[in-house]
Amino acid sequence: MIYYYRTFQTLKNFLPYSNFHKLTSFQQIKNQRYLPKNSLSFSTNSKSLIKEIIKNQTSLLIKWSNSNSLSNYNYIWLRDNCQCPLCVHPDNRQKLLSSSEVPLDIKPISIESSLDKLEITWDNDIYPISFLHSYSTKQNILKLHYNHLKPILWDSSSIINSQNLWISYNDYMNSDKILLDSLRQLWDYGLVFIKNVPTGDDDDKGILNVAERIGNIRSTIYGKVFDVKSIPAANNIAYTRLQFLHCLKNSVTGGQSIFSDTFKAIQKLNFHHPNYFNLLTTFPLTFHYINNGHHMYYNRPAIVIDDYNDTLTVNYAPPFQGPIEFTLGSNDDENEINLIEFYRAYQQFCKFIEEPSLKFELTLKPSDLVIFANRRVLHARKSFDPQSGQRHLKEC
């Protein structure tokens, strides 16, 4: 998984620690230090953001000057999300107050607003104005979570025109700008290729360099890196969030790689069959792997959406799909109807996935490395003749 970090301006002139007192409802937290001026991740550009503050019985209403909109902040929510050093650790930014400790009948004693903060007296809690503004609308919350960066849906004709589909290994390793371009390509399209990655017999160095440029590698049941070869009784499974495939040798006839954007297939499914889309976001599928002393199991829908009905991930792995469990032992006619409807929906989804226009096909050459978002982009290959040459890839 990639974690995207963002740089914020720092909040200056934060209220001194000595002003925090009267923790009447909560246990005193001792040995806290002053909040460093460069550690709070909120902007100082809050001038005239608040136009009016209105108190009612259960919440605080803020009218914003930049939009004239009115936002409602429940008193319990405000107390639970105080940003002062007693409630958020000044060093590691971890929350120190449990939601279970907030009195359900809490009310403010006084409220004072300044340029960049809102001070509420029940424990002298502090709220940067920009923090409150970030939670004032659903649109602002989306920006806070980076969900405003929408994925770019693609098919075989459009993906080849994406600006950063191919990246040079040397540029990727030595330029932070090129690294950022690569990560943005992954975010937008779920697919990026790195060319001229060093190769060598059974050499993990190239793929490790590329992967660790992004972040730490999570070890699987195969270790950090494993081989992808044509061998009898192969038993490997790919399930990582980001998947890296490095081609070391490829002289066989056939074996072209195929990539497909499931988000594009979902868009078509939702447009033509919205009832099928809704069913696949709720119907529980079983995925399992039982082999070689390992047993992995999980139950989840094929399509996972967020609170705004946008697709987050796709769970699609037919070879590792287990028996559907929710109807077992049931004589309920409604369950039977739902099961049949699920198969109709699933088969229609698969038809969209298999459309030739959605398949991007190419032959990986030695030194090529592909990174793809495994919960969005499907990967397959065509058959090849193992007697015609060698084919060896590294994967993590």
UniProtKB/TrEMBL annotation:
Its cofactor is Fe(2+). SUPFAM superfamilies: Clavaminate synthase-like. GO terms for cellular component: mitochondrion. Residues 167-396 form the TauD/TfdA-like domain. It holds the Pfam family TauD. InterPro entries: AlphaKG_dependent_hydroxylases (IPR050411), GBBH-like_N (IPR010376), GBBH-like_N_sf (IPR038492), TauD-like_sf (IPR042098), TauD/TfdA-like (IPR003819). Keywords: Dioxygenase, Iron, Metal-binding, Oxidoreductase. GO terms for biological process: carnitine biosynthetic process. GO terms for molecular function: 2-oxoglutarate-dependent dioxygenase activity; metal ion binding. Residues 55-125 form the Gamma-butyrobetaine hydroxylase-like N-terminal domain. Belongs to the gamma-BBH/TMLD family. This is 15152_t:CDS:1. It comes from Funneliformis geosporum.
